[in-house]
TrEMBL record:
Residues 12-297 form the Hcy-binding domain. Keywords: Amino-acid biosynthesis, Cobalamin, Cobalt, Metal-binding, Methionine biosynthesis, Methyltransferase, S-adenosyl-L-methionine, Transferase, Zinc. This is Methionine synthase. The lineage of its organism: Bacteria, Bacillati, Bacillota, Clostridia, Peptostreptococcales. GO terms for biological process: homocysteine metabolic process; methylation; tetrahydrofolate metabolic process. Pathway: Amino-acid biosynthesis; L-methionine biosynthesis via de novo pathway; L-methionine from L-homocysteine (MetH route): step 1/1.
Amino acid sequence: MNTSRAGDIVKKQEFYKRLEKEILVFDGAMGTMLQQSGLKTGECPEAFNLNREEAIYQIHRQYVEAGCKIIQTNTFGANRIKLSLYGLADQVAPINQKGAAIARMAAGEDCLVAGDIGPIGKLMAPLGPLSYEEAYHAFYEQALALIQGGVDLINIETMSDIQEAKIAVIAAKDAGDVPVICTMTFQKDMRTLTGTDPETAATILEALDVAVLGANCSFGPDLMIDILDRMNKVTSKPLIVQPNAGLPKLVNGETLFDLSPEAMSAYSKALVAAGVNIIGGCCGTTPLHMQAIAKSLAGETPTSREPIAFSKLSSGTKTVLIHETLPYNLIGECINLTGKKHLMEAVQNDNFHVIAKEAKSQVKAGAQIIDVNMGIRDGMISEEMAMLNAIMAVQRAVDAPLSIDTVNFEVMEAALKIYRGKPLLNSTSGEDASLDKVIALAKRYGAALLGLTLDQQGIPDTAEKRFQIAEKIVTRALAAGIPREDIFIDTLTLTAGAQQKWVPDTLKALRKVKTELGVRTILGVSNISHGLPNRRDLTATYLAMALEAGLDIPIINPYEEKIWAVLHSADVLTGRDQNAQEYIQWAAKKEAKDGIMHIQSAEKENLLETIKRGERERVSDLIEMMKQQGLSAMDIIQGQVVKALEEVGEGYEKQTYFLPQLLMAAEAAQKAFSCLKDDLEQESYEKTGTYLIATVKGDIHDIGKNIVSIMLQNHGFRVVDLGKDVPAEIIIQKAIAEKPDIIGLSALMTTTMQEMKVVVEELRSKGLNIPVMVGGAVVTKAYAASIGAEYAEDAVEAVKIAKEIISK
C-alpha cells in the first residue's frame, strides 16, 4: 500500500525547489525540551502526543518562531517494538497520527513537517535477533501512520546500522510518495557502530534514492564538518546535518551541553561550505540554538556542487569507485560452483567457511569486487539457501563489494534483503520479463545492474544487434530512474576455440556501447580461452584488447599474474596510475611461480584463526581434534580462545575489524567455552571475576550493554546481566547478593545519564566500594570522573579496563 495525497506531489516539488535555493533550518532536540516540560525518567516520550498535547504543540511553536523551516514529529521511538516496552504496542497509529497532527497545527504555512523515525533498538540478524521482515513491518507501520497523519517528509535518523537504515528507507518509500531523509550517527573513528564510513553510507543511501542524506547526533558541529565533506565527495544528493550542542556535562545534577547558541551557530557557514543544504540540531539543542543558526544563515544559499561521475559499489564498510581516471578494478570470478568440485561439496555439506575462504583469497590476490554464483542444477540444493548462506559468509569475511550472480529473481531478491551494501546485480538480459524485474529490484534495493546483450533469441551474431539490446536495456533502466553510472553492460565473450568468428563482434559492440551509451562495461574475459591450451597468454592478450576497446571491469581469475601485469601496465599507460605509484608497489611485491601468484594468506586451520574469522560451525571439530592431541581445556582456552579474542580486540581498535567481525568472533568463542564446559569444571577453571551490568532506570536501550556482556563472558568473566530500565535499588540489592568485582552501567540518553550518579551515590552510602564502570553514547570520560566511575568507550575497552581492575 502506497499512501499518497493529491497535494503530496506539489509539496514534494516545492521541497526540492527550496533545497536548490536556500539553506533550510531543521528544528532542534525534542528530548531536551520534553525534560523541561516535565518528562519523568522512564516515561514514554511519545505518549505525550496523547496525554500532553499542549506541551508538544508549544515545543513545536518555539522552534517555528525561532526560524525553523522544518519541524519533526514527536515520534522518534514510536514503532511497535519500542512502544511494546511501555505496553503501547497497539498505539502505533494513534501516537504517530496525533504526533503528525500536532506538528501540522503548529507548523503554519511556511514550515514543513517531517515524520520522525528512529532505530528499533535491536541489532539486525545475524548480529542480533531482528529479522528483515520484523524490521520492515515495524518501519512500514510507523511511516504509514505518519503519512496518513499528514507529514510532508519522513526523517529517518540516528541510524547506527546501515542495514537497518536500508530497511527503514525501503519501508518508508513503500508507505507513501513523500521525500525521505536519512541520517546516520557516527563514532569518533568516523564510522557507525557496525563499521560504515561516511562515503559508504552516502553511497548506499544515494542508491536507495533518498531525497536527502547526512549525519546526526554523534558529536558537535566541529567533527561533523569532516563527515559531511567526505559524503560530499561521493554524492550529489542534498545533505543534512544535525549535530549535538557539543558534549554533555553534569552541572548541579543537571545534564548540560557545552556549546552555547552563539558558539554552535559559528559553525554554520563551514557546514554550508561542506555541501550541507539542511542544518538542524540534535541532543542539547534548543530553540535558542536554532534561532542563532537561522540568523547566521540569513541570505545564505547552497554551495554549488558538481555532479559526481563515479560509479560506486559497496559492502557495508567499504566503497569501490569506478571511473576513467582511476585504476582498473577486477571482479573475482572464482565463487562459481560450475566445474569446482571442492566448492560444490562445501555447499552440499553446509561448509560455507570454504566459500568465505575463497573470497578472502581472491581479495588477497587483488580482486576489488567478488562475484558470488550459487547456480545449482542438480535439484538437491536450494539455490536460494545456498546464495543466502554464501552472501552471509562472504560479507562477514571480506569488505569487498559483491556481485550477486543469478538469473533467479527470487534468489536475487532474497540476497538483496540481507546484503548490507550496494551490490552489482548480475544480471538481466534484454528479454522484457527479465529486464523489467531486475530493474525493479535494483531500484527498490539500491543496486547497480549488469545487462547482458542477449534476449529470447539468444546471443546475436553481430555487434550491431548486441548494441541494440544494450541500448534497450540502458533506455529502459534510465526511464525507471536508474542513474547512468549504475548501469553496466556485458557484450558477452564467446570462446575463441568454438566461435572464433564472433570474437571481434564482442569488442566492436563493447566499443560502441562505451562511446554511444556512456555506461560502464564488463566482460567475462576468461571465457575467451576456454578449451584452448596456454590459456593465460590468450586471456591476457584478449584483456588488453578489451581494455583498449573501452572495458571498465573484467570478471576474471585474480590468481593469474599475467592479468595483473596487463591491468597495472594499462593503468600506467592510460594515466590512471599517477606517477606509476601502484605499478611500482605491485612490481616490488609480486611473487610468481609458473605464472600463478602465491597467495601468502592461505588460511590457517587452527582454532585461533577460526575464532578470529567467526567460523562458529567449525569450532567443535577443532576442539575435539586438539583434545585428542592431549591439550587440556585450559590450554585451549588460554592458548587459542583468549588469544584470538585479544587479537580481534586489537584489530577493532586499529579499524581492521568492525562490530560484525567482533560479534562473530565472540559467538565462535562462546561455542568454544560451551564445548569445553564440562572439561573446565573438572579442571576447576576459575572465572576472571564477576561483572554486574545494567542499563539504568528509564533507559530502554541495551545494544551496547549486550555487546559488553558478550565480550566479558568470552574473556572469562561471570556476567550478571540485569537487563534495561533497572532502578538503582535493584542494582544495589543485586550487588549485595552477587558480590561483583565490578558494576557496569549503561545509558544512551542524556535524560537517563544522571541515574548513573544516583547508583554510585547509593552504593557509597551503603558502604559498597565496588568499582563502577560507565559507558554509552552520551557518556564522557569527564562525566565518569565527576561521579567517581571508570569510563569505557566501547566493549573492547571495557574488557581491558575490567581486567586491569581485577589485576589490582
